[in-house]
Structures are given as C-alpha cells and as structure tokens.
Amino acid sequence: MNQLNAENPNYRLCVQCKKPDESRYCRSCLSKNNEQKHGRCIFCKQIKTGKDWCQPCNSKIFQENFDNWTSGNDEIDNFIQNTQLSAKNHHQILEWIPYNRFGKPNYIAEGGFGKVYRASWKDGHITHWDTSCRKWGRVNSGSLVALKSLNNSQNVTLKFINEITLHLKVHEYCMSDTIIRCYGITQDPNTKNYIMVMYYAERGNLQNSLNKEKKKQHKKQKSYKFSNLDLNIRIWKHKINILKYIAAGLRKIHGKELIHRDLHIGNIVCNRTSPRITDLGLCKPANYNEGNNMMYGVLPYLAPEILRGQDYTKASDIYSFGIIMYVIISELPPYYKVAHDEFLALEICKGLRPEFNIKVPKLILHIIKSCLDADPSNRPDAKYLSRIFYDWLIDFDKDAISYSESINKTELIKQIEEAEQINNNSSTNSSPLTIHPEAIYKSRPFNYKNLTEPKNSDGYYEIYDNISTMKYSESLLKSDKSDCLECEITD
C-alpha cells in the first residue's frame, strides 16, 4: 500500500471495494454499478455508462454527423468531437450550436474578458438517443441559457478551449448542483467571437440572492412574529448555507485536481435553490500569449503569493474563498475605499486584509483568518471548510423555531447572539457606499515587481477585533502614484 502511494501520490481507495485507484470508483466496481443502475444496451448488449446512455452506440451516432457541422475552427471541431466520442453520460458532451438556434440575446453584464447575455435556446440540451424517432432526445426546449461572449476569440486556441471546459471533469458521474454547466459553443456571426453556451442561473449574482432572502425573512417575521434576534440568526444561517455550497463546489473542483484560478464574487451565481461556481478556468483573455509574463485576476481576491508572480494553487483558491466569506458576511466589496493598484498589492503582502464594520463571531472570524493566512500551507482545504459549514448548519437546525428562547444553545449561536447585540447597539453608517473610482472588480492583467515577502499582521491569531490588526495607511488612502513601484498593469 505504501509503495503504491509513493509511486502514485494521486491514488485513493475505491469507495466500494477499497482497492487503490485514481478515481472514486475502480473500473470493475463502476461497471457493476452501471449494469445494476442502467442495464445493458438493447442493440450492442454493452453495459450502459449512464442513464439512457450507451457510449459505443452514441459515439457512432455522433461520428456519423461530424461532416454536417463545423465551427470554422479545426481545433474547436476536434475538441467538441472528442468530447462527444468519449462522453459516458449526457452531462459530459458539448455541442456546436448554430447561432440561429437562439432567440434575441439580452445583455446581462460584462466581465474582464467578455460579455454575458441571456437568450432562449430553441432546442434544449441532449439527454439521450431516441431510438423510436431516430434523433437526439432533448429537454428544456425554449428555456433560457447564458451566452458568454469571449473578447478577441476569433483565433482561439485548443489549449484555451480545454481550460474553459474543465467543468466536464467535474460532472463525471452526474450533474453537479454547485458548478455551472457548459452545454456547447457557438459563434457571433457579426463579431466572429466564440460564445460559451451555459446554464442560466435565474437569480443572477449573489448579492441579488442575498437581498431577496432578506426580504423573504422580513416577511416571515411579520407573519410569525419572531424577534429581531431570531431574524438576524436566520440571515446568518442563510449566509453559512451559501458558503457551504461554494465550499462544496470548490471541493469538487479540487477533488479533480483542478484549480479555479479566478474565484471571486462575480463568478458565483444563484438559481432558485443554491449558488453555483462559474467560469472555471476562465482567468485570462482568449488571445492570451504565453510569452507576455502577465498574471490575471481580480486584485482583492488574489493571494499574496499570486501577486508576487507565483503559480495558482488550491491554496490560492482558498484565499479567494476567504475574501468571498468576507463579502458575504459584511455585504461590502473588499478594499472599496482605495485604488486597486500596486500600493494595495504591497500592503496585502505586508498583512493588510479587508476590514469588517460589524462584530463577527470568533468561530467564523477564525475560519476567515485561516483562509487568508499569508502562508499557503496554513490555509484549510475545501473538504475541511465544507465539513465545518455542514456542522454549523446542524447547530442552527437544533433550535430552528426560536433561537432566542433556546436553553441548550451551541457555541456558534451564543457567539452570533453576542455579536448581534453589539452590532444593534453600535451606530453603523447606513449611508450609500462611496467606492473609490480605481477600485476595479474585474479580472485584469498585472505584473508587479519588488513586492515584499508575504506575512501576517502582528497578533494575527491573538486579536479577534477584525481580520488583520493592520490599518489602511495614509499613503494607500491617497494612492499617490508619484513614487510608483516598478510594475505593469493594464486595463
């Protein structure tokens, strides 16, 4: 066993037979499970690899249609064809979708490297081969999908397409409810930019979802007459539930030995029931040149080691998750008072972190601190975070009717109550936020020089008044660029 581990550090035990394997299930157990669950194909007698999905038969059907479509780009054609030939269920396929199969696109938002629209898809996505009609069975015809147009993608490369469709690895056995799915690729006939056709999250961005939940809980308060304290605790529960879903999505990504690399609040969208992570692998422009030595990302969400030019890691994703925790709990954008430039990057390396304007329970603040630790090896992994949030939600459910009247309160509920009493007695400024004109929350290229070795602020794990003991310096608030560090940043 130890020898296997030494030779292949990525192995794990099959969850069924406990034999070493690189996948969740070994090939033998997976085959047995598929036969029990899905049966055999009535035509080729092979074991089906998914619900109503025979890989050998469906591969032949896809292949027979290869000459009937083209994206205009041989590399994209080959990539889509390979996914169709290797797909073991309908979650793993991509289609080339003619642009005229969509209704009129409506603009939603613009990101760092493209624009997002929504449009109805006349056909809907493939689920199985309908043997009686001799055509692909589809669902959700006429439903809305998100169209992500990629700037300057006319000559997009296979490597880039591979990266932005990494989600296919996440949906190995079934559709993940924490990762946004991509259905295929199309092309704008006017701009010639390629477009990712993706699942449409109807609640939109995370802030919209939070606002809707608050309104919902206020309505419940009027109907059921529960206290303000109970109201606040219900909102805390909702926020932790959101964090649980995001951590679970990140756990799935990391479990496939993938790294998101551009995790920020703009890449978290919500459907009716849960938030989902999107834009997996999309952290640079479509016309990215390997030789330009530029890094990409939303500066406030980037770990100090990334700002210094090191490679993206799972630990750098965890740092980004820590900033997301701050945003969800504070309902403030990170570092909104200052310009997002090399001065901020330098201060982050010195130990600056976003500031709360509210009291935060110590248990929760400690998790944020650990995620934002300057030393990547001190940050928790996604599996640990997912478990912590799951356990905390159990704490909430123990006294779901009235938290304020509960006798056997858990430590988390006690800390939330204490924090809310302090917050209710404090005079927080409720005026509209004034965001610095150079606080930019889009992915941008940067290449900073001469940043200091990252470190935590003094007393980082001893003082729990805030994340960091370090405050904004006067020079940072002024952001005088006359003494600019040697750097390069491009809008």
TrEMBL record:
One of its GO terms (molecular function) is ATP binding. SUPFAM superfamilies: Protein kinase-like (PK-like). Signal peptide: none annotated. InterPro entries: Kinase-like_dom_sf, Prot_kinase_dom, Ser/Thr_Kinases-Pseudokinases. Gene3D superfamilies: Transferase(Phosphotransferase) domain 1. Pfam families: Pkinase. Transmembrane segments: none annotated. Residues 102-393 form the Protein kinase domain. This is Rad53p. It comes from Rhizophagus irregularis (strain DAOM 197198w).
